[in-house]
Amino acid sequence: KGPLRPHKSPEHSPRPRRPLLSPQPRRPPRQDRRAPRMPATPTIIGALLGLSTQMYSNALRKLPYMRHPWEHVLGMGLGAVFVNQLVKFDDKVKEDLDKMLERAREANERRYIDDDE
After folding, report:
1. What is the pTM of this model?
2. Nearest CA among 55, 77, 76, 50 for reference residue 67
3. Domain ranges of the chain
């Protein structure tokens, strides 16, 4: 292996020391990095829900799965509308909850923090 050499301190190194981790660009806060909205996903899920409901209804009655195709189209349309409305309702509920929590926080600050002053 060869003779052991004494360890040189970093100040005497011929090369300048580099940082262990290179500086990386800062990421935006977590809330700004939301996944892009996919408006087709609820529509597709709703259409599949409507189609499967109609096919299940026909299967329970021991009828051919695609007995009246127009019923399947109608079920797909109603399912798509239902799931899209459900997504809109969920977004509205989240906004309302955020507003209520903000109002409650402000009321608590007025009640407990402002009274001390």
Report:
1. 0.58
2. 55
3. 39-110
